[in-house]
Amino acid sequence: MPARYVNSQEFRAHFDWLEPQHVEDLGGAGNRLSSFFVYLLANCTGGSTVFPEVARPEAPEWCGTVKCADDEGQAVKWLEVPPKVGSAIFWYNLDLMGEGDRKTLHAGMPVVEGTKVGLNIWTRERRYRQENY
Fold first, then answer.
1. Which homologous superfamily is 2-124 in?
2. Residue 110 neighbours by CB under 8 Å, 6+ apart
3. Are 68 and 62 in contact (CB under 8 A)?
4. Per the CB 3.0–4.6 Å rule, which of 71, 72, 79, 132 could disulfide with 51?
């Protein structure tokens, strides 16, 4: 599902997994097992994808991929991925017990100026459509 953001638009903190009472409404497909977010257009300032419950990798070689310092030069402690065309983020939404992982809380920060377009791809626990063969 494409997502387009322009000046000041954002997607507030949320989970991609669903609470158990809502999973039953999906007709047997199950919960969202994993998520991909692919940056298709990143002609913007701002617009990072932020995971506030996940620590940023400490190794300096990550600083070309994730945001390591804020605008004041202070270290960023959480995982923050600035938009870059062709980059993608992948994560599992469910833990090993099949429960929603609370560390997957994430948000699309406001686009300060310009346009960001991303593509959401979700996998499910089970086949979504039944084919007749």
1. q2cbj1_9rhob like domain (2.60.120.620)
2. 8, 9, 10, 46, 47
3. yes
4. 79
Alpha carbons 31 and 23: distance in angstroms, whole number: 6
| CA pair distance 118, 1, nearest whole angstrom | 8
**DSSP H or E segment with residue 54:** strand 49-55
Q: What is the pLDDT of residues 73-127, one digit of tens each?
A: 999 999 999 999 999 999 999 999 999 999 999 999 999 999 999 999 999 888 7
Greater confidence (68 vs 29) lies with 68
CA distances from 48 to 21, 24, 80, 132 (A): 31, 32, 6, 43
Please state the domain extents for the chain: 2-124
